Predict the 3D structure of the following.
Amino acid sequence: MEENNAVKASVIRFKDADIINGENTVIYGLDMEVFPGDFVYIVGKVGTGKTSIIRTMIAENPLGKGEATVCGYSLGKIKEKEIPYLRRRLGVIFQDFQLLMDRTVQSNLEFVLKATGWKDPKAISDRITEVLDSVGMENKAHKMPHQLSGGEQQRVAIARSLLNKPEVILADEPTGNLDNETADGIMKLLRGINEEGTAIIMVTHHRDIFEKYHGRVFVCKDEHCNEQVDDDVIDLALTI
């Protein structure tokens, strides 16, 4: 009972934060708190600042005014040498997969592990086998990315995001380049990961996704991003 009643610490927290893209402020006064096990959607039309929020979370874009903490790191005070350590605690999934096309699936994942400090060959091999198995790609380690379907490439990208056992997965339009059936498979996979306790923040403009797979919804509109429960407000904020 004590564990159930314990107050969970947030893994991401923005308080009255301005989100910047280049020299422009695209979102003013963002308040957002994400806890372990949350599934959070960030929705809105193209150009409303959705991806800029993700880039701020990984310290690619600087924080404007306000406060922001991601996995224990203050984005307003983070030093450049700390950024790689922050990113190891996050998993990032992109719409266009961003796999290295000149090497196998196995080599893609080895590259990430070695770049984040893994040295023991057996530990590297075991972890790769584990994450590929978790996304149903255990028999594809020897394949080149161009030999895989779009859905398979995205499953490898999800496996890559899991390598360092992240506290949060940031998914930027992960189903945007996939057909409906394949996208549904990817969503089921992400929900399964989420149900094991990993927080997921997903950018999308597809209403049918967050209607089928419920979660918290933040709407980006008119230079603000607010959590919404009103379907009419959400509907107006999305592209048709």
User: Anything to note?
Assistant: The beta strands are 12-21, 24-34, 39-43, 67-70, 73-74, 90-94, 168-172, 199-203, 216-221, 224-228. The chain is about 35% helix and 25% strand.
